[in-house]
Amino acid sequence: MSKKIITLHVNGKDREVAVDERESLYETLRNELRLTSIKKGCEVGECGACSVLLNGKCVDSCIYLTVWAQGKDIVTVEGLKDETNGDITDVQKEFIKQAAVQCGFCTPGFILKAVEIVGANKPYTRDEIKELITGNLCRCTGYMNIVTAIEHAIKHNMDKLGIPYEVAPSTTSFDIPDAEKEKMLKDVLAMQNNDVTKA
Amino acid sequence: MFDISFLYEAKDVKDAIKRLSENPNSEIISGGTDVLIRVREGKDAGMGLVSIHNIAELKGVKQDGSGNIIIGAGTCFYDITHNEIIQKYIPSLGEAVNTVGGPQIRQTGTIGGNICNGATSADSASTMTALQADIVLEGPNGERVVNIKDFYTGPGKTVRDRCEVCKHFVIKKENFENYYGYYFKYGKRKSLEIATLGCSVLVKLNGAKDAIEDVKIAYGVAAPTPSRAYKAEEFAKGKKLNDKTLLDEFAKLALEEMKPRDSWRASKEFREQLIKEMAKRSLVNSIRRAGGRIEYYV
Ligand code: FES
Ligand code: FES
User: Fold this and answer.
1) CATH code linked to domain A4-79
2) How much is the ipTM here?
3) What ranges do the domains of chain B cover?
4) Most buried one in A25, A128, B37, B83, CB count within 10 A?
């Protein structure tokens, strides 16, 4: 099948690209335009690792045909920057600060979802954030720090808009009382010393 | 690369019908969240796809002169949930489609696809059945209207011809006005899950709000196709809310008309239990939304 040249509006620029009409948006963006932040996890729309912003909303690019995206505004993590100073966005800074990244495979998808969530300019609660990220899977972090990072990013945005917003008290490991930490450490050591092969 | 023989972007409905008729081994693709996965799995591999994805006339929700609600088949789940007309008149449909897949899927998946794929587990199907939606199809021989109760013929099967495009759904005013509804989805997890069982109830109370004037109850996955429990509906009509036998009898009758099956998701016995319990809870929630008082503790 022959390829045809189409124009995609990616990260603020019009890009001409030769595509096969059978291609997914994931394949075009990653293979042709080398936007490697997008990851392929499941290829069936279950993990969100391939998320891209399409007209401001996250879609799974693995089950989206490239030709459908013509005339739409596509954003990937490569296209994110803080408009005021050209720096990385608050969302990205908070992901770093809250240690919301471990292996990083799910991170670009989560970042884009977080950008969409923050951009809604709504004071979402922790529970609402959890609901909003249900289309993204993370195998490492346990989500706690991701939710916290998004909460803090919302807080920055709410401050700018002058809307009062309280970040729920953190329940991440950073804030565990010392006595509790010692107990946890003991438990872990006990587990390690327990020879499972003899059990 | 998807294993398809061609992809054709239809300009409008007529154009799509023409292409489908010319290519016997082709099918419609709308949001793609179902068809593309079937292609990936090899089930629909090699097919030609006629895309109605970007046809503007198939999108949106509006009301006609007589107040009926018209939902474009190409409207994505997110847009239905966030539509003002839906939120005002049939919020339970908005809630039902908000349980499909995950947020990303709901941006592209469409209600037309959800109904036309014929799955009994489709989250919109039970509520659309309770709302007695009319389905407007257009094919090579022109337009026809099929009521949803006559639409499904078996698991994954509908009366829609391969060359027919589902254009929109009409929900008549008399079928939603003064009705309050609730959709109950039972699944093992909250997101990205196919319903083990779905139950949708719509209830209309009398003026004093102490008796049921009318009720509709429809299930998904309780039978090979989305089905209504007519006997239960008949029984509940006119019953007082403080009638102690109401809920148990309603649930018992609902089960009588369903034909649940074993599947890897759940056993037949478990589904029977769900059918009864979900009938009660969905009815109670609908009644409470309608402003009625009814006792029920779980
Ligand atoms: S790779 Fe697209 S959703 Fe998993
Ligand atoms: S950080 Fe590894 S999958 Fe999320």
Assistant:
1) 3.10.20.30
2) 0.93
3) 6-50, 57-174, 178-289
4) A25
